[in-house]
Every structure is written in structure tokens, then in C-alpha cells.
Amino acid sequence: MESGFRGYHPYVQFLYYIYTGALAFYFNHPLFLCTAFLLIVFVNISHDRGLALKQWIPALFIMATIIIVLNPFLVSRGTNILFYFRGKQVTLEATIYGVTMALSIALILLIFVSFNLILNGNRFLYIFSKFLPRTAFLIMLAIRFVPLLKRRLQEITAVQRIRGISMVEGSIIKRAKTGMVFTQILLTWSLEEAIQTADSMKSRGYGIGRKSTYIPFQITKRDWGWLLTLSLLFIICISGGLLGYGKILIYPKLGTLHIYSLDWFLYICMIMLYSFPILVEGREQLRWR
Amino acid sequence: MAMIQINNLSFQYADTEENTLENLSLHIKEGDFVLLCGPSGCGKTTLLRLLKKEIAPVGHVTGDILYRGKLLNEWDDRILIEEIGFVFQDPENQIIMDDVMQEIVFNMENLHYSQLEMRKRLAELVHFFGMESLLQTKTSELSGGQKQMLNLLSVLLLKPTLLLLDEPTSQLDPVAAKDFILMLERMNKEMGITIILVEHRLEELFSIADHVVCMEQGNIIYEGTSKDVIYSAFQQQDEVFSSYVPSISQLYMKKERNPKLLEIPLTVKECKAWLRTLPTFTKRHADAKTVTDKRPILN
């Protein structure tokens, strides 16, 4: 049996990701976002010591920088003008908005990284096969194709390099042409093999009736407990947000960043919601060491 | 009663002029290990695929294929999927799921087996294959031989009575191929599963197979036990098929003055026994012994 966060029922895990994902776009107070970001980083580290996270760091960094830099130059809404760039106003509001947006998107991305690690394969199918059986399976196959294509492309590149055809030398046009040839090889190859995979699925009885699952997922008392706790915290966060707490006013004029007592309350609720996997893993560590 | 009965089967692919299979008849007994061989394009894969209804090629079919006395089309889909297993040539393309465990149970999940049933079958066969340590790994991390074993295992979990294999070892290294063939032999002997195997690498297969079918241009040209087939191929001085015969038997057929059907050696053991009966061999062997004895142990 899997331990820690992985040991929980898929529904609980799925709800956790839905709630955190929703809150990532709901609150836009920098303090809330920064805290949530840090917590999700810790959650990822608790899964696999941050291995999956590491691969995403460069992409995350580049994307965040682009959003933060571009937003104030493209959007000129807002009242507090910092300076003029080629006759266009660069405002404080747009800058802050860029930062919050970058944080939200980074947060969502990290949530997905964690999602991929926890709700993979069987668990994913378990959740979605109830109401979207075909789509869920199609998604599974599509996800499987990503590493497969990557591996095949590496193989093609290696073989072609020995034949003297390579994408790393020559003029840009030549490189582009080689790239196109590689893509063509990759696609025809993959299509042909996909037919074989389809044959294999057919011969093994896929789609002749209802599927059963090998791993029995049972909702225990512990799962119910967390399900209710998470939902309660989520409802508090949402209703608090409806009253304007945990959010800042950006356009047309930047509001106060001051944190009121109810803000603190929401803040703590959000921290509890986000740190559910960390709490679970932490408790396990304490118990077994 | 024959398990598979093929009567006057002809098959033509949708966009071709010629028949891929031409008026072919074949009977296969339950529990036999059948070896199907022949040059590329002789229709052996087509024949094999026609036996598995789900992946039968599209084209014009005449003649009947009977499974246990009933036409394939009259059987229930579910029963055919369970009873007739198919292992493809490419080890990788037939794997669907990410994890070994999920891949193994894929068939059983599709057929909606109960928890208990799945666990029982898995516990039994995974142990038989010695795959316990691989259950948690990713399928992409397995070697070719392990992948093909995995495919065989997942098919066997449905308890098939007939196993069809389309050149399963052609992409494996010789060691893995040997392991795979040995596993098939065990399946055949210990569980009585009928096996129809299409293969190019035939060295050790002739000694295992109960029934060998040689095809050429959509027709069966030799059929019978391994020895029958070898004997008739050499009798008719068939250059093409003589080269398919294991080298041990080739040696016998070429060197023996009056070869006898029942004495054709198929294994190294039998071949050595035959060599010992040759007068020249015994003499040379004795010479070699004395020479080695004279050599100093340390120099």
C-alpha cells in the first residue's frame, strides 16, 4: 500500500487539486500568492524530492519573466504612472498585475506537476472513467505519446547523425529542412506504430464492455474527514473572497496592500488547505522515525 | 476433433489482384505446438491474423475457419478474446499502459473480471514468470525480452486455449529469444496450451514443434512432424526449404549416405549420437584424445 498523500483516495486528491487550482486564480493578494507558491513547491518536494519540479524551473522562470516584463509595456491602464516608454505610459498597476498573473500561472503549473505525479495512470482513469470513459482513455494515450515521441525523435536524430544528417550544423535553411524531414519520419513512424497499438488493444478486448479496476479504491473514514475539512476550508476561502478579502484592487487605481484581521483568518485557512499533503507526509515522517 | 479446422480457405487483400492464400486446408489438434514457416510474403501472417477475429485483415475471404467445430463468426466476441490470445512481432507497440502492473491487468480489466479473480490469476502467473520485481517499474524501462515476456504474460492471464504468435522473437537478442521460446515450450507442456508460432529463427524450434507447416505463395507445401518436413524437403531437393532446416539436420541429410526418416537428428544430443556411429569420426576422435593427453599441463 502506498503511504502518505499517495495513500489517500483519488477523489480526495482530485478535490485537493481542484480547490488549490481554483484558489490560485481567485486570490490575487501578493502575500497569498507568494505563500501558496512556496507551499506548492514544498508539496512537490515532498513527492519526489523535487525531481519533476527541477525540469520545469527554466521554463517557469522564462515564462514568469516574459509576463512580468511584457505586461506593463503592453497594458497602459492604471493611474500611477512610473515613466513613459516611447510616449506610452508604464503604470504601477500594470506592473503589479503582471506579477500577480505570473504568480498565478506559475502556481497552476506547479499544481499540474504535482497532479501528474500523484494522479497518474490508474487513478486518473478511476476518477474519469465513471463519467467520461472514452475521453479519459484517449487522454491517457495522448499523455503516453509525449515521452514516446521524445524518445523516438532522439532515436531518429542519433541514426541520422551517423548518416551525416544533423540539425546542429549548416545554415539555418538547411537545418530547418532537416528538422522537417525528421518530423516527417517521426510522424509516419508513429502513425504506423499507432495502428499496431490499436490492433493490440482490440485483440485484448478493449471497449467490449464495462471495465473493472484492479486496485480497489475505498473511501475510508480518514478520507471522508479530509474531504470535509478541505471542502469547509474551500468554502470559507471562497466566501471570504466574495467579501473582498484576500484580494487587492489593481485597476483603475492600486488599492491598499494592508492586511486586515479577517484577511489573516482567510490566510490561515488557505495555508491549511494548501499544506494538506505536507501535513500528511509530515505526520507520517514523525510516526515512523 | 480438431481445434482449428481450415477448409479451402482463400484470401485476397482489398486492393490486390492475386490471392494471398490459395485454397488452403489445415487441421490443428488441441495441445499441439505448431510451427508455421516460409519465406516472407508467403501469407503466414495473414493466415495467423485470420484466426484472430478482432484483427483479421480486410479483404475477400472464401472457405471456412472453424474453431472447435463452429465458425469463428458464430462465436461470442468475449469468448474468442479470452480463448484465443495473440502476441505481436514488435515488443513495444503492443504495450499500452505506462506501468507494468497496469499493462498486465489491462486485459482482465477490459473483460470486467472481479477483484478476487484478477488477484488470483495475477499471483499465480506473475510468480511463474518471475516478474515480481518488475511490477512497479515503467514499461518503457524494460528490455526487449522483458517486454515480450510481459506481453505473453498479459495474454496468458485470460487463460487462452490457443495462443497465436507472430514472429515474437524477431526483434529480440538470441539469449532473450531462447528464453522466450523455452517459456512457450513450458506453456505448451505444463498447461497444454495450443500454440501456433510464425517464426524465422528455426534452429531450436524444430525439436520443440509437434507439427510443422511450411508455406509458399499462399499454399502449404510441406506439412507434418518436424522429421517428415525435413525429409520431404530434402527428398525433393528443395533449395529454399532445405536452408530453413536446422543446421544439425542439414548436416545429417547432406552427409549421411542413406538418411532414414526416424533417425534425423534435431538436437545436438541426437546429432552427437549419430556422429558416434560414423567410422571416420570414432577414429579421428580417438586420435584427438591421444594428442591432447600428450600435451603438458603447465608450460
UniProtKB/TrEMBL annotation, chain A:
<feature type="transmembrane region" description="Helical">
    <location>
        <begin position="124"/>
        <end position="146"/>
    </location>
</feature>
<feature type="transmembrane region" description="Helical">
    <location>
        <begin position="264"/>
        <end position="280"/>
    </location>
</feature>
<feature type="transmembrane region" description="Helical">
    <location>
        <begin position="96"/>
        <end position="118"/>
    </location>
</feature>
<feature type="transmembrane region" description="Helical">
    <location>
        <begin position="55"/>
        <end position="75"/>
    </location>
</feature>
<protein>
    <submittedName>
        <fullName>Energy-coupling factor transporter transmembrane component T</fullName>
    </submittedName>
</protein>
<keyword id="KW-0812">Transmembrane</keyword>
<feature type="transmembrane region" description="Helical">
    <location>
        <begin position="14"/>
        <end position="43"/>
    </location>
</feature>
<keyword id="KW-1133">Transmembrane helix</keyword>
<dbReference type="Pfam" id="PF02361">
    <property type="entry name" value="CbiQ"/>
</dbReference>
<feature type="transmembrane region" description="Helical">
    <location>
        <begin position="224"/>
        <end position="244"/>
    </location>
</feature>
<keyword id="KW-0472">Membrane</keyword>
<dbReference type="InterPro" id="IPR003339">
    <property type="entry name" value="ABC/ECF_trnsptr_transmembrane"/>
</dbReference>
From TrEMBL, chain B:
<dbReference type="InterPro" id="IPR003439">
    <property type="entry name" value="ABC_transporter-like_ATP-bd"/>
</dbReference>
<keyword id="KW-1278">Translocase</keyword>
<keyword id="KW-1003">Cell membrane</keyword>
<protein>
    <submittedName>
        <fullName>ABC transporter ATP-binding protein</fullName>
    </submittedName>
</protein>
<comment type="function">
    <text>Probably part of an ABC transporter complex. Responsible for energy coupling to the transport system.</text>
</comment>
<comment type="similarity">
    <text>Belongs to the ABC transporter superfamily.</text>
</comment>
<feature type="domain" description="ABC transporter">
    <location>
        <begin position="4"/>
        <end position="242"/>
    </location>
</feature>
<dbReference type="InterPro" id="IPR003593">
    <property type="entry name" value="AAA+_ATPase"/>
</dbReference>
<dbReference type="InterPro" id="IPR050095">
    <property type="entry name" value="ECF_ABC_transporter_ATP-bd"/>
</dbReference>
<keyword id="KW-0677">Repeat</keyword>
<keyword id="KW-0472">Membrane</keyword>
<keyword id="KW-0813">Transport</keyword>
<dbReference type="InterPro" id="IPR015856">
    <property type="entry name" value="ABC_transpr_CbiO/EcfA_su"/>
</dbReference>
<keyword id="KW-0067">ATP-binding</keyword>
<keyword id="KW-0547">Nucleotide-binding</keyword>
<dbReference type="InterPro" id="IPR017871">
    <property type="entry name" value="ABC_transporter-like_CS"/>
</dbReference>
<dbReference type="InterPro" id="IPR027417">
    <property type="entry name" value="P-loop_NTPase"/>
</dbReference>
<dbReference type="GO" id="GO:0005524">
    <property type="term" value="F:ATP binding"/>
</dbReference>
<dbReference type="Pfam" id="PF00005">
    <property type="entry name" value="ABC_tran"/>
</dbReference>
